[in-house]
Specification:
By secondary structure, the chain is α/β, with parallel strands linked by helices. Helices cover about 30% and strands about 15% of the residues. The two termini are about 45 Å apart. Bound molecules: iron/sulfur cluster.
Length: about 700
Amino acid sequence: MTPTKSTETHCPYCSLQCGMRLESTRKGVRELSVAVWPEFPTNAGGLCRKGWTAPALLRHRERLTSPLVRDRATGELTAVSWDEALERVAAGLVKIQQRHGRDSVGVFGGGGLTNEKAYALGKFARVALRTSAIDYNGRWCMSSAATAGQRAFGLDRGLPFPLADIEDASVVVLVGSNLAETAPPAARHLEALRANGGRLVVIDPRATATAVRADMHIQPVPGTDLALANGVLHAIVSAGQVDQDYVDARTSGFDQVAALVAGYWPERVERITGVSAREIVGLAQLLAQADSVIILTARGAEQHASGTDTVLAWINVALALGQPGRPHAGYGCITGQGNGQGGREHGQKADQLPGYRKIDDPAARAHVAQVWGIEPDDLPGPGKSAYEMLDAMGTDDGVRALLVFGSNIVVSAPNASHIGERLDALDLLVVADFVMSETAARADVVLPVTQWAEETGTMTNLEGRVILRRQALTPPDGVRSDLEVISGLAQRLGVPTGFDTEPEVVFDELRRASAGGPADYSGIDYGRITRELGVFWPCPDTGNEAAHPGTPRLFLDRFATPDGRARFHPVDHVGAAEQPSPDYPFYLTTGRVLAQYQSGAQTRRVRELDAAAPGPFVELHPMVADLLGVVDGEQVRVATRRGQMVAPAKISTRIRRDTVFLPFHWVGANLLTNDALDPSSRMPEFKACAASLERVGGAV
Ligand code: SF4
């Protein structure tokens, strides 16, 4: 049947933000289907099964269509009007702030929110609530790479080049990334790389779907990627293969790093990482002899208490080889969440203002205050990071009320049972969502909001490409957009203007607020995004007809540091904060599976995805299974110092003998994970903690 309407838009899930056409053949949502949009460059028509099935969410039977307020007498959530719900929230916030001060109200955002929403949320917190307590779940995703990028290059943009550049590199190294499962359409670039004669190296404790396609798979002990990087750099320095001309011309700090990695000789690194000295030297040789090298990190390397230092160690390798700022070469981070990049640029992070400005920078405060029509002194200072804000909920030092937008923290926070207890200690929990997530189910007030295809807004994908997700259909009766919720609350809090509900108007304000900042969007508008299929930031407004072209490739002439040089950083291995012990003899690591996304609040509700990945499992090595007397499919209890869960065993030679793996899309895995934080990025250590295993039996 010929479609009556076709809208070019983007997938609601990961940072690839694959372009797709959403088509309807008749009026009504049941006829909605996904078609390819081959012209959109990042995915060139490719979609994974999450993208193909995304319309299933749009009229899901569990869709929330009425505000809900918890009845004080019965404890049940009861449907009320929007006026009543917003009045109750506003009155509660005012009362709590009067009693406990402005910082007693917190806002928790999400890396899936559009740029417009992230911007409006940051402004709402600082202008309407005047609280410093705002952060978002992206803190748990890319913050270590972001911090390292700022330190080394003076700027954080996940990929400083288009994704397709990896096809023309000589060697691509993926550190802690399972691209073939987390973002399958991106894997075509890896195939093209190899077809062009390039080599792929994967560093991962598991032989993932990505690792098995690699030319070299290195399988280190969880939490030892930093030592591995230092060992590789040691071998490069020892062999006299440092690109000294580049180091002299474009970097600073190499000598201290060279002195430090002198202590990381291959045999010592073998003892730390479990990777043989031969492999370490082999990797160093492969990299040193390549014309162009791209090193990409993802959560496997970054979600550690030493995540920032780990990324810096790999950046040191890239710099010593003279790669960053050259064509088809350099370092990049593979962002996770759909708007993980844009979400950290426009003000929903505790220490930031729009345009990736720092909230403690007087010039930044003056600029943003002027756009917002307030005095700089009225802007709060930096607040607590995401986990620290949640950890302090309900205490004298913490928030008493929390507004949650686009996040399911009950499932996604580390040490989740503790976070559940802290949520219960709040005086007021308000959750805006479109389904009854595990977090919404605990709220005092639930606000039903629009989702991806029901609203327009910009996202910034993993390449730094600002794209437009267009509205394709009318939202169901009873729901409002997050922008309308924010505006409605601001009005009731006595700030009647300044919170527009039209995404394009909000984006125009965001452009002004970002102008002159590191993430300058002032030269980008909806029309340009449409015509050019996305625009890369920074893209300043030139003020004349010769528009800035945007910046697909960063650092070609200089880095974004004051002197234009990239910085080496000497970083030492410390390992996972919690090491195996007689009581907890294994490493536990967590991650994603192809058919599910993040906390699963969306994908667990899509029938095809649920059928493909219906629940958690414990991946363990056959030798461990023998030791426990467990057969495939039998129930196994995994326990850590924080909690335990039971799931069926998945016995596989893909994993190290000292390590077990749990996917985190269901309640359970994060009851076990460690909340040790990186001292700089405040990233929790999701990827390594000590665990015990026990056969429970049954259910094969
Ligand atoms: Fe593309 Fe990611 Fe959506 Fe899959 S989930 S279709 S890889 S954006």
